[in-house]
Amino acid sequence: MDCIFCKIISGEIPSEKVFENDKVLAFKDINPMAPVHILIIPKAHIEGADCITQETAALAGEIMLAAKQIAKSFNLDTGWRLVSNVGEDGGQTVRHLHFHLLGGKKLATELA
User: Fold this and answer.
1) C-beta neighbour count of 36 within 10 angstroms
2) What 8-state DSSP symbol labels residue 50?
C-alpha cells in the first residue's frame, strides 16, 4: 500500500508520536496550523469518514477518547478543535481517516 499514514504506522516513515495504543496513533503535524496541531489516525486503513462502516465505527470512538487524552496532556484546558476533512473538495489530502487536533490559541470561528 502506498499510504503515507500506513507507512508512519509501520515505522517506515518517522514521526513525532504523542500518543499510541493498539488501535490509534497520534503525531505532530509537520506543517502546523496552530501551536498544537496533532494528527490522530486509526491503525486500520480506512480511507476517510465517508468510508466508516458499522464494523469500523468503534474506531471513531477510540479516536475521540484519544483526542480527549491528548488535549489534556497538552494542557488545552480553554478549548481545542477536532476536524476531519472528507474528499478532495473537503480538503482531504491523504486518503486515510485522520483528525486534526488544533489548539494552543484562540481559533478563528469563520471558514475562509
Assistant:
1) 20
2) G
Whichever domain contains 11, its CATH number is 3.30.428.10
pTM of the model: 0.94
The residue written with cell numbers 516513515 in the block is: 13
Catalytic pick from 37, 45, 96, 98? Answer: 98
pLDDT digits (tens, 9 = 90+) for 27-82: 999 999 999 999 999 999 999 999 999 999 999 999 999 999 999 999 999 999 99
| First vs last C-alpha separation in the chain | 34
Active-site residue flag, 98: yes
CA-based nearest residue to 87, from 56, 60, 50: 50
Count how many domains the chain has: 1
AA identity, residue 14: P
